[in-house]
Amino acid sequence: MKQRHIDVFRAVMTYGGISRAAEVLNVSQPAVSRTIAELETEVGFRLFDRQGRHSKPTPEAEQLKEEVDTYFAGLERVEAAAAEIRDLRRGHVRLATMPALALSLAPRIVRSFLERNPTVKVTMDVHTSPRIVDQIAVGQFNLGLGQLPETRPEIDVIGTWRVACVCVLPKGHRLTAKRRIKPRDLDGEPLVALSHHTLASRHLAQSFLAADVKQTIRVESQPSYAACALAVEGVGIAVVDALTAQFFGSERVKTVPFAPDTPFDFRLMRPMNRARSMLAERFAEETITIIDAHPLTERHT
Length: 301
Known about the structure:
Layout lengths: L2 H13 L2 H8 L3 H15 L4 E4 L2 E4 L1 H28 L5 E6 L1 H4 L2 H12 L4 E6 L2 H9 L5 E4 L8 E16 L19 E5 L4 H12 L5 E6 L2 H9 L4 E5 H7 L4 E5 L5 E9 L6 H16 L4 E2 L2
Parallel strand pairs: 3-4, 3-5, 7-8, 7-9
Antiparallel strand pairs: 1-2, 5-11, 6-9, 6-10, 6-11, 6-12
């Protein structure tokens, strides 16, 4: 069955006759009649009873029209879906983020993106950085926010940012009056340390070693917001990224910059050599804009 046959048949059924269908299709009446005759030959039954200059649809034609209408409704849905995809009104973005960014920065990015694209779906999963890297490498997520100590051929790094580390102290602690806290100031102080396998923990260990100060680790904790929560309870002083510390607010803890500067770097990543959706690319642009504008972050190479 040819598309031309279906179009002409639908026009005759919709507009109530061959003459009106010919006008709408901008063809001659004989051309419409020939097309209907060809269709009747192909389907093997009459579609119209000719009564003088008029044609009345047969019951079989009415049944066929139901299927034709269903067919065109399906095409219209496909066209509508294509328009929604083209205009970024349809789709799904999958984001993986490390815990330190899941408290405020990543939710801010998602909120901003959904305000601009309210009909799409976003999945935001929270994982450790090593797991994020592994999942991005195999394409399980469109984008990932996490730490990447070494380059990997399966990972495309879109951007890198740096956040300073700060000391998180309970309210009223004697060190809250200091403008900067050095390893020497923490000599003998109970600490809430991040897990030894994290990059921040390694940087801090090097700082204490260089100052010839031994860390008094009371609790080892991961992720950083758990370390902050322990500091709130007075368990010890935590040294974490400023983004996590900011989430707890000045009414709960006091934060003081740590010296020497201890970097907390994170990257925006995507799978290498995989097809990229327009929606994911737009999400990446939104992510870059918001991170660049954040007062605690700075671009890093």
